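Box 3.1 A note on notation
Throughout this textbook, protein chains are presented in two layers. The first layer is the amino acid sequence; the second is a token string describing backbone geometry. Keep the layers aligned when reading.
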Amino acid sequence: MSIFSKLTRSIKEKGEQMGAEMSFFQHLEALRWHLIRSALAILVFAIVAFIYYHEIFYNVILGPTRTDFWTYRMMCNMGGFFHSLIPYIDAKGFCVSSINFKLINTDLAGQFNLQFSSSIMIGLIAGIPYLLYEIWRFIRPALHEKERKAASGFVFYCSFLFALGVMFGYYVVTPLSIRFFVNYTISESIENLFSIDSFISSESMLTLVAGIVFQLPIVVYILSSLDILTPKFMREKRRYATVIILVLAAIITPSPDALTMLVVALPLFILYEFSIWVAVMVQRKKKKNEETGLTVQ
């Protein structure tokens, strides 16, 4: 994890190292072009998504609304597995045989606006790795040659965790939420007709938020490198983190099925424990540097 300590230290010292070479406005100008290139990359992805929107809409956006979706098939297989271990568990309870899901549009230009806005959202999600790359290019001049090689993994790790979070949000959080809300009724006289805008905004929010939440190890590493967060503190607050994770899992999947809630909570527990391990590695690295007479800021 030493690649990030070098990166964190260099970000902290960026103003001191480059102040003599570039003025404040030159920094802003450089940052502006990095942001412009990032925006152009997002725009390119959005245009591609707009062109192939019909395929994306049916296969990706509406994927969690169909019973043959990957998550529902895995849930059915999981039910059969648990039934083979514990016969009194109803395997059919895990299977999704039907989804009473009807989407409506109430605006004259609603479908066009839907295609436009969701294409932008797809472009944003797809362009996050390039945005991280431009951030890396902005801070790169503050690094020495060895630090540049060592910290080059920053973009990869952040992009990998973001992609992992997006997949978790799309394949786990979204279908479980849809399964619950579609089947939830307070009266048979009320028919569920969901607005397409509401559905896509909910799906994109769950997916994007999951991608951001999975950046927790990176955030913990930076805070640990700055002596703001320690493994001891995270271990002491583990019980509070457990409660928060369970509450989040209950909100995400408001289902009386405890097993379904645990399916969502388990990756979050793993993420928290991994973040503690990251903080431990940072502390060990700093201690080792202090023993060898090095100064780590």
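The chain has a mean pLDDT of 80. DSSP finds 13 helices and two strands in the chain.
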